[in-house]
């Protein structure tokens, strides 16, 4: 589609472009615009869209294209775009923009909207308050069904979600929840208080967004109210915002598991080389220094290696096996912790399970390795036995270490992802070498 639009632009067939774009949905149009690099072309195509369509497309554009459009827009055009956006989308956009663009956005919003935007921006980063929207449907509990429906007709078109309505007291305290389906099924004279559901789940403005995502998953919500410490409703969080949170949290965990100190909201190609190097170098430096432990262990057994040089050939395989099985265990445990399937109090159960898995896996791999060394590599049976028995202990210990480190981090209120691949591999390498050389010294009597 991008190629078709480019060809039509060259031929200046703008009416045909408008026709092509009108046949697409907002996400498809944003995908096309995000592919164009030239600000002139992005702005030209965006201006070919109808006003309401343009406002729908704008939140789906990446921050770079949004900035291009805002820079090129007049104050009136900017106001028209942002008048159609929901508050949570406006806040998300503002957080990504440089200060001069933010000033232009705020300049072209009315006083009431500016106050709400600034209020949302003051909530702690990654909190429920920072991702909520203030556009929700609420009724007074003493209203009748007919009054509530009439209010919904007047205000519903400006709300992000009308399918779940909230019932409040005179001072704004959230007292109940009512679905649109329940509302229209009741008689006009029915009082809202009599049909509302008083059992509901809510979150506080300062609750972590990861906690919010867990609640959405647990209760299968599509929307959830956000209240202050006095129980007054301040906004709602919708499932599309939670999907963004899940994506952000997963990315953050992957970075931590890979030993990357911090993440960025920019895509891989847009992140500068300097930024990416800075993110990675911290853990790499720590691991490089910690790996000297393995070097010192090897140096301590130089005499053993000198008398049986063949032992050196199996060090990489043993260290790699330990790191791999440790990473497997840590990945499974970290995922289970994130999903709430296990907690630190289940440490003994986890230990028992990983120990059992370790025994089964190590026996199979060790037997295969012993047979391989004897038959294919023609290695001395004693050496083959030393390597294979080391593999048994290495796998079992690495499994246990890989499982217990994330649980330990959880107990210390640290992020379990930090205790993943890099640290586990370092510990596993040192333990493997000690076991290997102890067995070599014992069985070869060196």
TrEMBL record:
Gene Ontology CC terms: plasma membrane
Protein name: Magnesium transporter MgtE
Domain of life: Bacteria
Organism lineage: Bacteria, Fusobacteriati, Fusobacteriota, Fusobacteriia, Fusobacteriales
Family: Belongs to the SLC41A transporter family.
Localisation: Cell membrane; Membrane
Cross-referenced Gene3D superfamilies: CBS-domain (3.10.580.10), MgtE N-terminal domain-like (1.25.60.10), SLC41 divalent cation transporters, integral membrane domain (1.10.357.20)
SUPFAM superfamilies, sorted: CBS-domain pair, MgtE membrane domain-like, MgtE N-terminal domain-like
Molecular function GO terms recorded: magnesium ion transmembrane transporter activity; metal ion binding
Subunit description: Homodimer.
